[in-house]
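Target protein
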Amino acid sequence: MKRILTLLFVLIFGTAALSPLAAQGYIEKYLQDEKPIYTSGYRSYLDIKGTFDEFDTSSDASLHLITSHGYLHREWLYAGGGTGMIWGIGGKGYNELAVPVFGELRALFGRNRLVRPYFGFRFGVVFEVMAQSRYRNGKIENSGYLEPIIGVEFGRYHASISYVNQNILAQTSDGVTISLGFRFGR
């Protein structure tokens, strides 16, 4: 009788102990069958942006071509750096060219979905490389670059709205920025 009770005890508690392990193995196999949309690793972004000065009545605007390269960690945190070109178009007929150099952080929300909202932040410095001499006397000027970003990724494409704060260009390039872009890498 003791042997039967011991055997039943081992079967009941042994099965109870092995069930979660078996279920975990099934879940892991199920997750391996799905191919993740976002995986950790290198990725880069290419953005085309337009900034419209909201505080000035001179109709200033700028066109940005920005690239950022970095690493996506655990499918949600991107850290990288980049550079690009900013072409300032003044309402009074003058044009200027500036080059930003920045670091970038992005937090992507929603795990492994095709559409993922994100919040980002770029910070760095901007160098004015070409300006009309009557404004800067031919010197390369620099200024801080700060840009909080709210956007959404659709697979390899993304769209965002941000606020650029930089006062280097003679027409100032502070303002609301609308961006469309493409992602390379994972």
